[in-house]
Amino acid sequence: MKGQPRVAGLAGAMLAAGKLPASLLFTGPEGAGKELAAMWTAARLNCEAPGTCGASATPDSRGAAVCQACDKIGRLEHPDIHIVYPLPSGPMEKTVPEIIESRRADFMASGEFEGKARSIGIDQVREMIREASKQPFEGKRSVAMLPEAHLATVEAQNAFLKLLEEPPPSTVLILATDHPDRLLPTIRSRCHEIRFDALPDEATGEFLSLFYSVEEREAARLAAIAQGNIRRGIRLLDPRYLGIRADAASMLKLVLAGKAARLPAEAEAAAREYTREETARLMEEMVFLMRAAMLDREGRLGPQRRSELGKELGAEALAAAAERDLPRDIRKIEASSRNLSRNVDLELTLVQLLLDLAGKWY
Ligand SMILES: [Zn+2]
Q1: Centroid of ligand 1 to alpha carbon of 211 (angstroms)
Q2: pTM of the full structure
Q3: Mean of the pLDDT values across residues 64-83?
Q4: Nearest residue to 132 (alpha-carbon basis) of 103, 164, 108
Q5: Cα 124 to chain center, whole Å?
Q6: CA atoms of 216 and 208, how far apart (whole Å)
C-alpha cells in the first residue's frame, strides 16, 4: 500500500473509523496493486493485533511478527476470505485446487492464464455467495473478492448483484478491475469506487526487492521498464519474458532506422521462437515502448525511465520516433495484436505489421 498513499489513507481512515462501505470497487490501471490492496483490506478487517502486527504495515510495525489471521490470509488459507478467480473457458491443464496452490506459493503468479480467454461463470459466483453468506467461521468479517471482475459473464454479474443488494451483515465485498466500463452499471452504482493511480517506480522496485529478492539496482531498472505496472515488473523477472521485451525493442529499432530489409528475417525468427500468446506479448511490449517514446517526446518521462528507454532503443531510434505519428503506430500494433486472437498466420501478421510500420510494402 506504500505506493498508493492516497488509497491507503482513504481506506485506512474508513477502517479506523469503522465506516468501511459494505461493497468496494477498486479501479485503476493494470498492476497498480488493486488485488494486493484487497488482501490488505481483508487482513486489516481480521487482524488480531492491529497496530503491532507486521501485516498491518504501519510505520511502527514493519518487520514485526505477523498475527495468525493475517498469516492465514497471506497464505490464502483463511476460511472467511472468498476469492473467485477467472478461469479459462477451454479445457484446463490444472484443477482449481492446483491453481490455488500455485497462488499460495506466489500470490501474483497469475501468469499461467494470461493471454488466454477467461471468465467468471455464474456457478462460481453462486458458490461464492453461499460461502460469503455464512457467519464468519473464525475471523471478524468475511471478505468476498472478485479480482478482474470485468471477466464475470452478464449472468454472473447479475447473480452477484443480488449479493450487492442485500449484503450479509458481516461480509465485505471487494471487486477489482482495470475495466470498470465492462461492469453492469447497476453493479458500479452499488459499490463505493476507489480509484488507484499507476504505481510509482520506487514502490514497484521496492516490491521486487522485498518479495522477489531482486538486487536493488536491477529492481530499479525493471521498475522503470514496467512503467507503473507491478504485474509487468514481476513478469520481467522471467528471462524468457525479458527476451520478448528485448526482441520488441530490437524490431522497433530496425523499424525506426528504416532497415526494412532485415524485418522479414526477424519476424520469421520470432514466429519460430514464440507461441501465439508470446507474440501477443511481443506486440504489447512494442506498444509500451511506443508509449514511453511518446511520453519522452512530451518531456513527461522520469529520468530513470528515460535512461532505460535510451539504453533499449538508442538515441538515434528515439530521435526518429519523436518525428513519427506514434498514436497511429500504436493503433496499427494493437490491430495486429487483435488479429492474433483469430487464427491468423503468426509470421505473416508480424511481418506485415513491421513492414507497415517501416512504411515499406512489397
Ligand atoms: Zn494481523
Answers
A1: 18
A2: 0.83
A3: 90
A4: 164
A5: 22
A6: 9
> What does the mean pLDDT of the chain come to?
88
- Whole-number Å distance between alpha carbons of 77 and 197: 29
Give the span between the Cα atoms of 17 and 289, in whole angstroms: 44
CATH 3.40.50.300 fits 5-197, yes or no: yes
**3.30.1330, 1.20.272, 1.10.10, 1.10.1060: CATH of 238-358:** 1.20.272
Cα separation values, 331 from 6, 200, 287, 343, Å:
33, 26, 9, 20
- How do residues 254-270 score in pLDDT, each as one tens digit? 999 989 999 999 999 99
Residues 100 and 75 sit within 8 Å (Cβ to Cβ): no
Question: How far is the centre of ligand 1, averaged over its atoms, from the C-alpha of 72 (Å)?
Answer: 9
CA dihedral 154→156→157→162, nearest 10 degrees, is: 130
Residue/partner pairs of 103-106 with CB below 8 Å, 24 or more apart: 103/76, 104/75, 104/76, 104/77
Centroid of ligand 1 to alpha carbon of 352 (angstroms): 54
Which residues have beta carbons under 5 A from ligand 1 (an ion)?
Answer: 47, 53, 55, 67, 70
**How far does the centroid of ligand 1 lie from the alpha carbon of residue 235, in Å?**
29
By the 10 Å C-beta count (0-12 exposed, 13-18 middle, 19+ buried), 291 is classed as: middle
For residue 361, give the amino acid letter.
W
pLDDT tier at 178 (50, 70, 90 boundaries)? very high
Q: 359 to each of 35, 224, 248, 352, how far by Cα in Å?
A: 42, 30, 18, 10
